[in-house]
Design goal:
Helix content: 40-55%
Shape: globular
Number of domains: 1
Radius of gyration: 12 Å
Strand content: 5-15%
Order of helices and strands: HEHHEEH
Mean pLDDT: 86
Distance between the termini: 39 Å
């Protein structure tokens, strides 16, 4: 079985910065960092210690939190 079938955030996913995620979610970068720390948004850490977020996960959070 292919690893990407088990992992919803495969290596083929596009990763974005905290600032880019903040723009998509319409919140401050500090809020995105807090949500990542709290486990609300999955992320990885770069070798330099910066967070990167799977674009698909950010889009999912944006979809769940949008109120019409």
């Amino acid at each position: 079985m292919d690893k990407s079938q088990n992992d919803p955030y495969s290596s083929e996913d596009i990763y974005i910065t905290t600032g880019e995620a903040a723009k998509i979610l319409r919140v401050s970068p500090k809020t995105v960092a807090r949500w990542a720390k709290d486990g609300r948004i999955p992320h990885i850490l770069t070798l330099g210690g910066h967070r990167r977020f799977p674009r698909s996960a950010v889009d999912e959070v944006a979809r769940r939190t949008t109120v019409f």
